[in-house]
Amino acid sequence: MLARFIQIHTLTHYPASLLNRDDAGFAKRMPLGGAVRTRVSSQCLKRHWRVYDGENSLKTIAAPESVRSRVAFERFIVRPLVDGGADEALARLAAQKIIGKLFGSEAKQEKAEKKGGKKAVSDVASPAQPVATAQVRVLGMPELDYLRALALEAIGQAGGSPEKIEAFINARTAEKDFKKNLQALRPGTLEAGLGAALFGRMVTGDILSRSDAAIHVAHAVTVHGQMTESDYFTAIDDLVREDGEQGSGHLNASELTSGLFYGYVVVDVNGLVSNLGGDRALAGDVAERLVHIVSTVSPGAKKGSTAPYAYSHLVLVESGKAQPRTLQNAFIEPVRTVGNLVQNAYAAMTQHFTELDAMYGKNELRAHAGLGTNGLFENQMTLSSLAAWTKARVVE
Fold first, then answer.
1. Three-class SS of 288-337
2. How would residue 122 be classed by pLDDT, with cut points 50, 70 and 90?
3. Three-state SS for 263?
4. Could you tell me if 85 and 120 lie in one domain?
């Protein structure tokens, strides 16, 4: 039975780590059920999943990538044009004018100037500086390739005249077919790259396509109250110590935490298939890899001093057509840390399942891979088999 939604629930324990820091350098927190919990933000999780390049990574999927950067135009338009023999000043001008048309920054600045007010912040960089947008933008490699070709054509038509470059780009981007051609680079919104198709992108202009996220990621939160310790540490000056002096070259303290985190990911299957241009097989590949990476790819600051790498104790997947619902509410009352913490969390989850099914009915197919689950959850299998099972719910 094809799924409308895939829900992936994980329980992952991290000892002595600092997975995600706030602006003060402390572990991120979240009050829940009368207790403060340790938290890992969804932004942190998604970034680690996006950039992971090992086995079963999203990068192994045969699809164009997204580039998330302020300097994408410098890296993928200006530099290749200059390396190909184009005049650097003209290449930068062309890239700047394209940025202005895509993101509307020129129009905003002109409007502000006409009103006599302060100039609006522009996405267009100074000609003497690397071409950069004011904000991080998400662009697909097909889009960047298309825009680089446009810039090259503008330079060729201009004959060395900056005014002609601007006029050419103004005329071309005003054509009715420009937006259509840009968005027809690949079916659906895959012209924005795989990252945008999965996790979405927000655009303010009317030329680039906006992508709604097809994969929804919750903040990971511990199932129990926060457990922290201040780690006092020193750095020894080896050469000073060799001279017989005592003391250290550096003193500091850092917060460390440990905890069993509940993670929750929802795949909007119809949205994913649509974002991938109707390619259901490709959507199945994404779902299969997602099961692997959410359970084996760890976030983490202070990697050199804490080695915060862990695999999930439990990966439970649900496939169905009803609106998704988190299982975080199984842990509104903090799980007891006395005894076996993982088994206590399993017990809270199974009780919550029983209560949900009794009230709403069982609307999902369920399967899981787990350590020490001992028949607590239905349809146990290996992680690879679970990933294949999940893929089948998308493609068959």
1. HHHHHHHHHCCCCECHHHHCCCCCCCEEEEEEECCCCCCCHHHHCCCCCC
2. very low
3. strand
4. yes
Q: Are residues 145 and 73 located together in one domain of the fold?
A: yes
**Does any domain span residue 233?**
no
Answer yes or no: is 383 within a domain: yes
According to DSSP, the residues that pair with 211 across neighbouring strands are: 201
Strand ranges inside the chain, DSSP E: 5-17, 29-32, 35-40, 66-69, 137-140, 215-217, 220-222, 227-235, 250-268, 314-320, 364-370
pLDDT digit string (tens) for 344-363? 999 999 999 999 999 999 99
Same domain, yes or no, for 32 and 16?
yes
Domain count for the chain, please give it.
2
- What's this model's pTM, rounded to 2 decimal places? 0.86
Taking a C-beta distance cutoff of 8 angstroms, is the pair 270, 220 a contact? Answer: no
Going 321 to 322 to 323 to 325, the CA torsion angle's sign is: negative
- Look up residue 28 and give its amino acid: K
Position 19, amino acid: L
What is the pLDDT averaged over residues 290-318? 94
Could you tell me whether strands 227-235 and 215-217 are parallel, antiparallel, or unpaired per DSSP bridges?
unpaired
Are 207 and 150 spatial neighbours (Cβ–Cβ below 8 Å)?
no
One domain for residues 77 and 59: no
Answer whether residue 268 shows pLDDT above 90.
Answer: yes
CA 158 to chain centre: 40
What distance in Å separates the CA atoms of residue 147 and residue 351, rounded to the nearest whole number? 55
Let me know if residue 242 belongs to a domain: no
User: Alpha-carbon distance 262 to 268, whole Å?
Assistant: 20
Residue 234 · residue 248 · CB < 8 Å: yes
Q: Distance between terminal CA atoms of the chain?
A: 7
